[in-house]
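Q: Okay, next protein. This is GntR family transcriptional regulator from Salinactinospora qingdaonensis. I've checked the sequence twice, so it should be correct. Can you predict the 3D structure?
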Amino acid sequence: MSRPTYQRIADEMRQRIIAGDYPPGARLPSRQALATEFEVGPRVAADAVQQLVAEGYVVSRTGSGSYVRARPPLRRLTRSWYREARDGSPFRADMAAQAVRGGWECSSESTNAPEDIAGRLAIEPNDPVMCTRYTFTGDDEPVMLSTSYEPLEITRATSVVLPEEGPHAGRGVVERMREIGQRIVHVTEIVTARPASEGEAEQLGLSRGTVVLVIQRTYYTEQRPVETADIIVPPDRYELAYMIPVEQD
């Protein structure tokens, strides 16, 4: 099945933007000019521009036209066992390395594990978990979201049951779990992409429909998974750098 005409026009304009034919801040041709170039009606041309707006490539200004969106500085998120194993927050360490003031806001609540989360944590659906939702900030601007889950059968009645309260608040998962005798030995991450939900787009200041990266991260001890999270990353703001240790004989 062929792609709708407006999507083919959006594909072509997207490539021109990526190639630098239209640099950040440049005004795109008017809808009428696009309609003439691609030999389509103005409505089809308008839909193509709207597609680029939804993807975050273009901003529309009433009465002025459509412009290539200025890209924020690209920052790096280091996915590294060495960094995760250190004391403190890996996110804050990443931001500090790039001269950015990193922080977060969060809220925690006990809830029942949805089926997919239960599968990732090797527990039964509806088993109790602590769910913590984070909005990470760089220089006080929202830059990343995360929703984490920890089985309450492990953390209930311990000093780390609330990830961001108590004597170990603000520490990474590795250090917190170590405090209750859970030694994490490896981490898995599955990276996918999808359009941001309406709530995610609003929290991160994205256009509706903008594609985001989703990092599905799970921490394991020798016996079992002890934490899993979905991390939402805008790809125009971050690159993911994976550092993989190699054991020597």
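A: Here is a summary of the prediction. The chain has two domains: 5-68, 75-243. The beta strands are 58-61, 65-68, 75-80, 102-112, 128-138, 141-151, 186-195, 211-220, 225-233, 238-243.
Q: Noted. On to the next one.
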